[in-house]
Amino acid sequence: MEIVVWIVMQLALFGGLLWFVSARRDREMGVARRAAPKGETRELHELRAQRARALNMPLTELARPASMEDIVGQADGIRALRAALCGKNPQHVLLYGPPGVGKTCAARLVLEEAKRNPESPFDAESAFVEVDATCVRFDERAIADPLIGSVHDPIYQGAGALGAQGVPQPKPGAVTRAHCGVLFLDEIGELHPMQMNKLLKVLEDRRVYFDSAYYSPDNSAIPPHIHDIFQNGLPADFRLIGATTRNPEEMPPALRSRCVELFFRPLGQAELAAIADGAARRLGIAMGGEALAACASYCASGRDAVNIVQLAGGAAHAEGRNEITQEDVLWVAETCRHSRRLMPHLPEKPRVGVCAGLAVSSGGQGVAMEIECTATRVERGAGTLHLGGMVEEEEIDLRTRKLRRKGTARVSAENVREAFRRRFALDCRDYDVSFNVPGGTPMDGPSAGIALAVALMSAIAEKAPVPLLALTGEITAQGEVRPVGGVREKLAAAVEAGAQTLVIPADNWEEGFAKLPAAVYPVKDIAEVMRIAFDIPREAEWIDGIIPIGGCQLAIGD
Predict the structure, then answer these.
(1) 447 carries an active-site annotation
(2) What is the distance between the alpha carbons of residues 246 and 20, in angstroms, rounded to a whole number?
(3) E strand or H helix that includes residue 3
(4) What pLDDT is attached to residue 557?
(5) d(CA 456, CA 375)
(6) % residues pLDDT > 70 (the chain)
(7) What's the first-to-final CA gap in the chain, in angstroms?
(8) Residue 500: what pLDDT?
(9) Are 166 and 220 in contact (CB under 8 A)?
(10) Which among 103, 198, 463, 490 is annotated as catalytic?
């Protein structure tokens, strides 16, 4: 009898402990255990209950562009993307640009526009399939390939009933899910080389072919649809939009040859301020001009602007305020260690021996940089040439060998001295000439040629150039001005820096430059550069073929 009582007490104790643990678990989960509806498992019921609960939408999603007009600063890129995708014959596209400038949103919205075009092959069922190339799981054994697709052979775990019968099972990838739509492959430059080669084959065939040692066309146990897939492939007729932050030279030539290459440019200060303003309005909080300017100065992309606004707005709300101040933005920048972007501004008052050259950074953004020059007269022919802040020598890798040569910046400076001798009868070997580019970033490239020429002329003549002047263009030893690259980006940077007089090579002229809020002068010759830079009238100042600049009388050659 005592044994029976002891057993009952143990069972009661165990049951109470089990009830306590179960009740505590339900409390921690925050959901009381309820009976699942008829025909529904408890797990499915709990899954649906979890999906029914959600947090508020973050500001990054609220600020996501819902229309093309919401994408700031990319009018040219969007127009080109429309031209590539919205017509009768949409093209594959490689989309270059820094992160957070609207590449993904623009691609998604352009597909929606194409669907509304009756002449477009895209229709209401055309899907936008987005894949991040950095996250594509690649298996060299071809067991799993979410991008291209793979075959689940019978030997693999989970082959199921068909696997038990020795039937290989093709698994479609993203290229098939994007059939008759768009495959957006983000960070395409990070794709594994083997995956890239497979993708190029799919682009060429517009279908995916599979192989398996377990497939036999004579196997009657294989369903007809699997026979069809192995014999004819899975359809994969889509248009690729590959987005990347890399430079075009870093992309595979085989991919570039199959795509139209478009560019989204980095955002300027005013555009970043506009994004911050829109984010603040969606958050329902005020943000003044000083706060917007401070926010833009600490941003590298639109996402940075939205994140700063969200954190600054949260701090203001916690303190019972309905406005983001400049102090809030500076607090976020210091706390989150945002680096301030110092945008150059041309000085209102020009200086002797100083002018602004234009360049393009490695990220594809235009830059206005200051170029200084000093010229000291020495004994005839004993002058020297010194370059500070410029690349004087460079190394070229030709795979089989490496070559070292003078840097293009030094060659430009030497061309300027020779052009002065030929065109102005001025021998710069009579001067110790020193150029300097402040800022710490080494300058290279031939496009600084005419800026170097103006700085040198200013130093020799001891006369400052016209105010708010910026120049770009290669110069030859004969004094000719040759075209250069990145002129659009350079002009945009010059305008943002406050330039009012812009000088570019004549061969780079475009009609759209006439709409810029600055005077753009196309030139072909170094003499034209000097007329503009020192405000010399075309006829009034000419006396017997001599250009008077400051105290110098410079003769014009043929």
Answers:
(1) yes
(2) 58
(3) helix 2-29
(4) 44
(5) 7
(6) 82
(7) 129
(8) 93
(9) no
(10) 490
Tell me 172's DSSP state: E
Mention every residue, 6+ apart, whose C-beta is less than 8 A from residue 41. Answer: none
**pLDDT for res 538:** 65
For residue range 60-104, list pLDDT tens digits in order. 676 677 778 888 888 888 999 999 999 899 999 999 988 888 899
Q: Which fold does the domain 354-555 belong to in CATH? A: Ribosomal Protein S5; domain 2 (3.30.230)
Number of C-beta neighbours around residue 480 at 10 A: 17
Nearest to 102 by CA among 217, 228, 267: 267
- The DSSP result for 373-416, as a single string, is EEEEE-STT---EEEESB--EEEEE-SS-EEEEE-HHHHHHHHH
Q: How confident is the model at residue 141 (pLDDT cuts 50, 70, 90)?
A: low
Parse the chain into domains and list their residue ranges: 2-51, 74-215+222-263, 269-335, 354-555
Token pair belonging to 148 = 């291209």
C-beta separation of 504 from 529 below 8 A: no
Specify whether domain 269-335 bears CATH 3.40.50.2300: no
Q: Please confirm, yes or no, whether 361 is among the known catalytic residues.
A: no
Same fold, 269-335 and 354-555: no
Give the active site residue among 412, 447, 458, 463: 447
Q: CA–CA distance from 217 to each of 98, 141, 209 (Å)?
A: 50, 23, 15
- Beta-carbon neighbour count of residue 474 at 10 Å? 20
pLDDT exceeds 70 at position 23? no
Please compute the mean of the pLDDT values over residues 154-181 and round it to a whole number: 83
> What's the residue count for the chain?
558
Cβ atoms of residues 280 and 307 within 8 Å? no
Cα 533 to Cα 97, 321, 549, distances in angstroms: 34, 52, 10
pLDDT tens, position by position, 388-411: 876 655 666 666 666 665 667 888
Q: Minimal CA–CA distance to 473: which of 389, 338, 355?
A: 355
For residue 11 the two structure tokens come to: 């069972």
Residue matched to tokens 């602004």: 356
How far is 259 from 256, CA to CA, in rounded Å?
5
User: Is the distance from CB of 133 to CB of 190 less than 8 angstroms?
Assistant: yes
Are 553 and 546 in contact by the 8 Å Cβ rule? The answer is yes
Q: Which architecture, in CATH terms, is 74-215+222-263?
A: 3-Layer(aba) Sandwich (3.40)
